[in-house]
Amino acid sequence: MLEKILVRLSFGCKIVDVANGACINRGIIVVLVSQEIADRKIVHNAKPAGKRPTTYDATVGCIIQEGVEINGRSFTLAPRGIVWVISAETFSVPDDTTGLATLRTTWTHDGLLALNVGIVDPGWNGQLAAAIVNFSQDSFVIDKGEAFLRVVFHGHHASGSPRITKDGERYKREIINKSLKFSTTFLQMDKLVSEVSDKVFGLPKWAQYIAIYGFLLALLAIIAPLSLSVYSDYYTGPERIEILQGQIDDLKDEKQTSEEVDALKKRITDLEDAMRHASQMRDEPSVVPQWIETSRPREAR
């Protein structure tokens, strides 16, 4: 095995291999403990609660969404919401140190994800920021002063990296400009759904007109026969009744059988019922579903 158990003898970069007692000078990277982080003066404006045995927890200092800084002490991040968070602390990373920032495990367990955490380069002197997305189904409250990033620092040989310094106001302006490129929700779901539906269900103008005309023709095919039947029963019924009554009188005069007379009377009764029903249909509002559900009157024999 290349690496055995490594023990730091001092707060410098000297490392020994306990297995053989030989000094290792091959650029082995080791994690700095809390005291070493403090001795190298890496974290400025550090909070006692943020100090961990081998890491430092950066706290929420500024909250920004779509170019607007949130002034309150807390912010409620809705499901699929995106917000930028800037640390309250400033980090001055030496030339022989590299940081690695990750979102707190507590936040990830609650369904949050940081889009841009990662390496803090040697020579960086400024705050840390991350875009936070709420992937859970519940809202999440972000309080200022709350720990949100866990940063681990690795000591190594001098890298020769240039010093990059950004003061608080300049860095905040940069994050505000970046936040303007983000929607308030992940993937802009409303816009995405609209675009997808337009692609899937979108039709040319001429096809849309054909679809509308086809629907109107189908509706007319249902309404027209019903309307014609009602009109026929209502307006031609009296004339047909008179004809049938005349036939009854003729049968009486000719002394026809009572069965024929009864059959004609039944036809008259059925026709009168149909006329009353048609009259009711005419007085009611013209609602197609009611016409469809109504049985058509029987034709006179």
Low-confidence stretches: 1-25, 291-295
> Can you write the helix and strand succession as a string?
EEEEHEEEEEEEHEEEEEEEHHHHHH
Q: How many extended strands? A: 18
Which structural class is indicated by helix and strand composition?
Answer: alpha+beta
Strand content: 15-25%
How many helical stretches? Answer: 8
End-to-end separation: 106 Å
Global mean pLDDT: 79
> What characterizes the major β-sheet?
9 strands, antiparallel
Radius of gyration: 43 Å
Shape: rod-shaped
Helix % is 25-40%
Summarize the structure.
This protein has 301 residues and is α+β, with helices and mostly antiparallel strands.
Task: Kindly describe this structure.
- The protein has eight helices and 18 strands.
- By secondary structure, the protein is an alpha+beta fold.
- Helix 5 (205-235) crosses helix 7 (258-283) and helix 6 (237-253) runs antiparallel to helix 7.
- The strands form four sheets. Strands 4, 6, 7, 9, 11, 12, 13, 15 and 17 form a nine-stranded antiparallel beta sheet that branches. It has a four-stranded mixed beta sheet with strand order 5-10-14-18, with no helix packed on it.
- Residues 1-25 and 291-295 have low confidence and may be disordered.
- The protein is 39% helix and 24% strand.
- The termini are far apart.
